[in-house]
Every structure is written in C-alpha cells, then in structure tokens.
Amino acid sequence: MNTITLQPFALYIAILGLGGTLAAQNDLNLPDVSQAAAVKQQIALTDITIKYHRPLVNGRKIWGGLVPYGKVWRAGANENTTIDFSDAVSVEGKPLAKGTYGLHMIPNPDSWTIIFSKTNTAWGSYSYDQKEDALRVDVKPRPLAENKEALEFDFEDLKPTSAAVTLKWEKVGVPFTVSINDADQTLENIRAQLKGRGQFTWQALDEGAQFCLTRKINLDEALGWADASIQNEERFDNLSTKADILKALNRPDEAKTAWNHALEIAKAPQLYTYGRQLQNQKRGAEAKAILPARQMMRSRHKLPLPQMRRSKASRR
Prior knowledge:
Layout: H1 8-25, E1 35-43, E2 46-54, E3 82-85, E4 89-91, E5 94-96, E6 99-106, E7 112-117, E8 133-139, E9 142-159, E10 162-179, H2 182-193, H3 202-215, H4 219-232, H5 236-248, H6 252-265, H7 268-280, H8 284-301, H9 312-315
Antiparallel strand pairs: 1-2, 2-3, 3-6, 4-5, 4-10, 6-7, 7-8, 9-10
Helix pairs in contact: 3-4, 3-5, 4-5, 5-6, 7-8
C-alpha cells in the first residue's frame, strides 16, 4: 500500500484551502445593512437608471467623518453605485456618451466633484483609477430642510429635456443637471421606426413629418415623409401637413396647391380640428380663415358641431 506524506508547509496550504472552500460553501444570503435600491427616470425618450445601496446615518458624523472630505467616495455603500444612460446626454453642459458608468464623488464643504467612471463593476471606490474617468463635473451642495436618515437619489426639477439628479443624505443635497437633445434623439427614433411597419401607414409618416414641422427642423426630410404618407393614403391630415411644410420651406405656390387639394377632400370635423391646432400654435389669423369653409360645409351637410379633438402634434 502506497502512503502519501505531506510536508508541514504543504499540509498547511491544503488545510487552508479546504477551510476556504468550506467557508464559501457556508456563506448565507443575508439582508444588507445598507439596502439595495434603484431609481429610474425617463426624459423624452432617454432612460436614466441609478443602482446603489442606502447606508444609514445611525447617529454618526457623515461629512468630514464617515465620508472624508477631499477623497473619492462611492456615493453609496457596498458595490459601485452605477448610473446608466440609454442615449447620449449632457451633464452640467458637458457631453457624455450613452452607457453605464461607475458613479463616484469627491465631497468638500463648498464644492463637490461628480465622477463618471468607465469602470462600473468595482467594489466601492477602493480600486478607482482617475485614468478611467469618462467625465468629471463640479457642483455646489445645498442644505436639506429635513434630515435624510437613509441615503437616496432623486430626480428633481423635471423639464421636457432635463432633470436634476440629486444625492440626499443627512442634511446635504448634491444635485447635478442631466440634459438631452430631444430633437436629435427623437429624430433617430422616428427614422428607426419608419424602417419598420410604420412606413406602410399614413399615420406614422404624417406624425414624423409633423414632429419636424412643429420644431422647424429637417423640413426636406419631413416633406419626403409627408409625400410617402399621401402615397399610402391621401387624407386631409397629410395634405395639410404637406402644405404647411411647403409654406415653411418658402414654396408658397406649391403650398397653395397642396392646401386647395386638402380642402377639396376635407370634412367639417377635420377643418374644425385643424383650426383648433392653429389656435394652439398662436396662429389666430390662419385659424379664422378656416372658419368660413367649415361653416359652409356644416350648412351644406347639416353636420352638428363636432367635439374638439387634438392630434398628437398639438398635445406636444
């Protein structure tokens, strides 16, 4: 029978390895003291998602104590706090590509540095490397009216194209503004949708044309969408869209031709809705010009006054 004899050092390594294996096998999935959280906000079509852990004050001195001034901090607890942008954004006016970033901060009494790191899988800020920064911005902290026992991230000052992302803990709030280019990003989204089944309907193409028209952007592209919409199904809606685009392109003769044809096929409710849209756009004189044609149609067909309806374009 063969006998294996281990040297003392090799025996020590074997026992140590076995102990580590047993310990790993006995790890339990227990609640974190600093509980995990996530918060999400959509600005136009852009999603912003923050994942973090929420440490408690628990009677401790936070700023300049548990969280030292002048040093990189994980902006939370446990794993790296992360922030994800589904599209390119601007943070405090500086561009930042879409993606998921490790979120770190350097606190000071009067100014904080917000750091977006290309590394988003670290444990805390222990392995943070400034060479991996995607962006740094400086912001001002502000006092909170109420004490926040648990750290939290919040979205404040919501606007159509921006929001303030605010870290709140103890009696300090630290906001940084995230803004988007709504027109460019929505245009990209429209183009992608019109490569699908939207290209075969009059509504989707007309909505894309209306989006450009209301913002006075990409009018030549919008005219192409209006023509494609008319080709799918000729309606007052897309003919009037085409007329408005041609007018915006300073092509009055073509605009008049398209508008006259729109009037030929229009129904009283459509003229009413169109007139209301013009009023909403502060184009009162043009809206008044629609009224006689609508009244003439109502008397001709004895139609009741239609209920006011608003298109997607007028709701924007």
